[in-house]
Design a protein that fits this description.
Layout lengths: L8 H12 L5 H14 L1 H19 L4 H16 L8 H18 L3 H20 L22
Helix pairs in contact: 1-2, 2-3, 3-4, 3-5, 4-5, 5-6
Length: 150
């Protein structure tokens, strides 16, 4: 979008053509998804988040501060997705888990704890809504196990 809030049709077309090409780099893919997410967030925000997480894993492992900024960007993209998007919870769990790990490694325990708490909440909500399976294998939603199930 331009400064008036209008869609730059040329940029959208270039992004679509770029994604149709073969052999594009992850940075070009991310740039294209950023443009397309402006016009079709439900379709492209999840793809943007996956591409950002891929970039972090493949190219930024030795640079934790930069890796963290990319992971934070991925988590922000996922949060902008509607609750009804079926893969939202798992994508957010992936991003928050990586965020927690990086913050912990960087010696930022308060921020790591906040990421862990959000991660747990996303897991609880996703499981209760039937969008996630329990990591324990228990099919009953959290909070409904009774005394015997604890």
């Amino acid at each position: 979008m331009n400064h008036n809030g209008n869609v730059d049709r040329d940029a959208v077309l270039r992004a679509q053509v770029l994604l149709l090409g073969s052999g594009i780099g992850i940075h070009q893919e991310i740039a294209a998804y950023r443009i397309l997410a402006e016009i079709s967030p439900l379709t492209y925000l999840a793809r943007l988040a996956r591409a950002l997480l891929t970039l972090g894993h493949e190219q930024l492992g030795g640079r934790p501060e930069l890796h963290l900024s990319v992971v934070l960007d991925a988590a922000d993209a996922v949060r902008r997705l509607a609750e009804v998007e079926p893969h939202r919870d798992q994508l957010l769990i992936d991003a928050l888990g990586e965020q927690h790990r990086l913050l912990d490694a960087l010696g930022r325990p308060d921020e790591a704890s906040a990421a862990r708490e959000e991660l747990a909440e996303v897991g609880r909500r996703g499981f209760a809504a039937g969008r996630l399976v329990s990591p324990t294998g228990d099919p009953r939603p959290f909070g409904r196990r009774g005394a015997a199930g604890r």
